[in-house]
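User: Is it possible to get a 3D structure for a protein together with its bound compound? The compound here is iron/sulfur cluster. I've pasted both below.
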Amino acid sequence: MAKKNFGKALKDFWYGKPHTAEEGGRRLGELYEDKTGLLKHREWRGVKDTFYYMYNIWGYNYVHMVTDILKYSNNPIDFFKGTWRYRWMGQTYLPVIHWFERGLQGMRGEALAASAWHYRAMVSASIHQICNFFNADTRLHGGKQNNAYKHSFYANETTCGTLFYPWMDAGYQYIPMEMIPYFVTCHVNSHTVLNYIDAVQSIGLPGDPCPMCQAESGLFVLDDVPDSAPLIITCNEACDASVSTHTLQDWFANKPLFALPIPMQFDDPLVKKYCMNEIEEMWKFIEEQTGTPFSWESMKKRLDRQNRLQRDEWEKWEIASKTNYYPINGVAQALFRIYSTQYGIQGDFWEEASEKVKKIMYKCVEKKINPFPQTRHRVIAWSCAPLYYSNWCTWAYNCWGLNTIINMDSLMFDMEIRTDSYENMLEDMATYHMWAPMRRMAVGGMHHIFELWDYMKRFNCDMVAMYDQLQCKGMQGVHGLFEDEFRKRNINAFWIPHALPDSRTVSRAEIRRQINDYMTTVMHEEPLDPSLLDFDDSMTW
Ligand code: SF4
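Assistant: Yes, that's possible. Here is the predicted structure of the complex:
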């Protein structure tokens, strides 16, 4: 008996404990400190993966969080000044590695390595944006409008970076105003954004509009957006919930502003023409404001790179849909995709990560390695996702074997942009702009909302994780239609109620409880790791 126990202990030490309870599994839930969700100690993933995590992920990323600052910052001192000045910055930079821990928990081998490259690219892109903010910020430079300031465009985060490629050869930078202060902070430290929601409500905004729009305008109420560009391009974002956001932003920022709408009903060819005109008007506005003409060469060069990245993604999707060899977990897949398509080709971080991931993926194909061997269900996640709990899918795989293969947000910009002529480029650009996050499949009309059925088939999924954003009027309006369709089509689907960035409305524990209930009462399944069923992480980042 003792010999058997010793043998198992040795095996557990060398390979890490097995996943499931039946095999004397790893019980990941016991690693957490109550409430804070901090780890009592680091997860032992076996000798190889623990050391891989320590050196190639933990150490590597800490080192690069410093070298990226040196690479992208005009003066690293500005970076530290910005950390003191802006709440979203100070509260987000240090928990970055905990964000990795949450998203990569329980991953082993190729899944661990490949998913971490997606995280690495996102961190690098974030530091690139932060440095662009701080290089140009008049507040960090004694009120001076320096060269970086004069070469920056401010835009709403859902106004895709692709639109600004024509000025990049001339040294201009696109800075999405809310992508770091709002979108990235929600994922890394979910508490930071609450302050901004409260701020905008304190000046009279009622509590029921979309909390994304609330948080974005709250940033301006608290004067927490750097002053880094002489002009602003705004849009109505995914839905018209955001129109008032930009009224407030216009009021607080007080700069020359161009409002570039994203049409609601975009399948109409006349609406597309209208959108093409609007884009050209916006380009004229930039030319007038900067005195720098539109450059076709600058545009084409970056669009070609963007198209290559899109083809890379299609290659990955092909493997994800047809095999069990796709090594990226649900959260790394979704965030990388939405972030890279929205920010666009502003550096080489996306392409570098994509190359590395493809290498790992083809190794899995050649050697027939299944990176998620405990998969019981292949899940497609649909509708607007909870930003404060994007790592729910890591938990769901570890606890229940639910493997999120693809997310709605990843499928938004599922297209190339032609570069053979200006006219074709403009036409495709209009489509790309109209397929903004959430616009196409969340509020873009029934045809697009129900694209779910096609994608479910294409990605060979047998289950739907249906997000239920409680303050999203568009998606609340079609809740019942989805219920009917799920029944009619005999589809296994569970709902995830949430309030986008606001973890106070529905906690992470409540989301887990809802999934647990579905898996036990409807699916009659047993958890792979019962220690993950119920734990209190109410205070975690
Ligand atoms: S979650 Fe809904 S309400 Fe909020 S921006 Fe997206 S589509 Fe609009």
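Residues 85 and 224 are 8 Å apart (CA to CA). The chain has 22 helices and eight strands.
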